[in-house]
Amino acid sequence: MSAFPVLHHHLLFLRPRLHVSLRPLSPRLLRRRLLFSAASAQCCSSSSSFSSTAPRDDIDEVAEPPGFPPPPESGRETQQLIDVNPPRGTRDFPPEDMRLRNWLFQQFREVSRILSFEEVDFPVLESEALFIRKAGEEITQQLYNFEDKGGRRVVLRPEITPSLARLVIKQGKSVSLPLKWFTIGQCWRYERMTRGRRREHYQWNMDMIGVPRVRAEAELVNAIVLLFERLGITSSDVGIRVSSRKVLQAVLQMYAIPECLFAEVCVIVDKLGKITKEEVEKELMSAGVTSEAVKGIVEVLSLASLDKLEAVLGADVEAIADLKKLFSLAEHYGYSQWITFDASVVRGLAYYTGIVFEAFDREGKLRAICGGGRYDQLLSTFGSDDIPACGFGFGDAVIVELLKEKGLLPDLGRQVDDIVFPLDEELEGQASMVASALRRKGHSVDLVEDKRLKWVFKHAERVNASRLILVGNSEWQRGMVRVKVLSTREEYETKIDELS
Ligand code: HAM
């Protein structure tokens, strides 16, 4: 995105905190070291999922980058090297990546506003207890957890839903339901990295608290579809698979499997496709599910249509009624081409109780783009009364991969209104006056000095400046500055106080 090639300086030469007198690096040695680090960068470059050109060292299948060789010995020198890559699986956001991130978050915010949701926020550091669940979910095994200096067990949150539930409980009866909240925040999971999966990611969450009807699911799917449409993604690129955990609940009831096994069974069943069917069956049986029930579960999860499901479970099962309602509302919203029934969607989090959904790329190249569902009983696991709740999480990484795949990444150049440049060193005060006046009017102004005019023109092009304002001696004497409009190449003089 930037006109400059990105510099990958992988080694930073730091002065150690030792009582040793240090010489600055000679220009020759410095050049040699930078050359060395640029060469290392070719094989060890850190990549961001936001960067469109980054090499793919974020994926575990790719070999770990080689370690850095020790620094060259050079007499009394004691500079130390640090690896300037961020921790594995995490990202820096240089300006071009930050522009993309801000743009994406702006789309998230805009869709949330359109659906009349309010923004909330929570700490990234949470109490560990909030995330301890016994159903054997992967997420609880991926916690960044530790003891703080006060001896408290804390985590860098892997997801936002428990924090949201905590705040709902904290606010108690003071809030009037339903709540429609959204948030965008960073989450941490010690994951095995694949394309679009990282150890930190940002998640856009939209949640509705206090809506027991399928209207909540329908609204949330509406938000997801709106977001895709704004990004230029169509229903032939992406689909949203929908099912309900009540399907599994009905199967368990059919086989008289105790209710207390429900969450654990869901978490195991969600592994279908990730581990073999035989391994899933084995895990189900060791959780206490009979082999007959295991067979029943596997059969039901492979049903391809709602009609077939109805034929097996009967029409009076809640799952069927809920799903039918959602599909009928989808017709009215005008997004039915985006959603399909897929009994195998269960989701890996223990707390879902009803409809669950996941968006996926139809080419099947990427992992889930977003996912969510109804979690009507999460609050009671924290000791509160239950309140119906439904929501989704939408990560920032997979969607960027998809936008790259589809050639839909926006061209987000830097944008500056004016560049102010004094043609003479003595005019630095006058240039400051001009820049300051324009900034007061709300213009973004880059005040440049100590450069050749040729560089300034190139710079203006690079930063997409609208105008170049040259402060020259003879013009200033006449109370004027020279303005060059960069898009039209029009050039004129104007009075300083008429500059707008
Ligand atoms: P989740 O399916 O674990 O659900 O995550 C939601 C989304 O976050 C995923 O579909 C993906 O876009 C993104 N995501 C998750 N893990 C990673 C990762 N390691 N790297 C990159 N992106 C990732 C939840 O977290 C639920 N709390 C969502 C929810 C909100 N349910 C109800 N309300």
Q: If you had to describe this structure to a student in words, what would you say it looks like?
A:
With 500 residues, the protein is α+β, with helices and mostly antiparallel strands. The protein contains 16 helices and 18 strands. α2 runs antiparallel to α5 and α7 packs antiparallel against α8. The site of histidyl-adenosine monophosphate (HAM) has 24 residues, from β8, β12, β13 and α13.
Provide a brief overview of the structure.
With 500 residues, the protein is α+β, with helices and mostly antiparallel strands.
Low-confidence stretches: 1-48, 52-58, 61-68
Number of DSSP helical runs: 16
Judged by helices, strands and strand pairing, the structural class is: alpha+beta
Helix content: 25-40%
Query: What coarse outline follows from CA principal-axis ratios?
Result: elongated
Number of strands: 18
Mean pLDDT: 87
Estimate the strand proportion.
Answer: 15-25%
Largest sheet: 8 strands, mixed
What small ligands are held by the chains? Answer: histidyl-adenosine monophosphate
The gyration radius over C-alpha positions equals 29 Å
Widest sheet: strand order? Answer: 3-7-8-13-12-11-9-10
What is the CA–CA distance across the termini?
30 Å
